[in-house]
Amino acid sequence: PMEDSVLRNNGDGIFTDVSAQLGDYFRFKKVGRGACFADYSNDGYIDGFVMVLGGRGILLHNSPPLVGQRNHWLTLKLVGTRSNRDGFGARLEVVAGALHQYGEAVSENGYLSQGDPRPHFGLGQHAEVDKLVIRWPSGIVQTLEHVKADQILTVTEPAGEGPSAAGGKQ
Q1: Do 127 and 99 form a contact (C-beta atoms < 8 A)?
Q2: Rounded to an integer, what distance in angstroms lies between the CA atom of residue 76 and that of residue 106?
Q3: Half-sphere exposure of residue 33, counting CA atoms within 13 Å on the CB side?
Q4: 131-167: pLDDT as tens digits
């Protein structure tokens, strides 16, 4: 059997193994054959589900810190009108102060698993997104400003004509 591990991104290009601090699951060797990641509890913290060879699947719940600094987040539920219904293929840009992040709405999957299709952005200490730009597969570009963090935001593609259409949150 192999050891499963969790590496924390230190933000400087270096990762630290924090597995020993994360509970009983990481104390025993096992063979994980598939994993998917999603915010199962809708609390802004991404959880993991691991399929174990010869055993039961295990949900690794990522709990918010009880003490200390909580980070902000934003999860998007896209609703396509001219594009596909789930907005798959939409390109996303999030700006919060000096933080710039890019993502794409995809039907995530891996070996024996299917992840959360909702794009998720970690915002650190930013309690608001200054600008969210959604480039829908239809060519429509939608811009939202001053979006509150710490929520699952449903955004519906505007019914505009072509790439210059803009709209607010729905």
Answers
A1: no
A2: 12
A3: 8
A4: 999 999 999 999 999 999 999 999 999 987 655 545 5
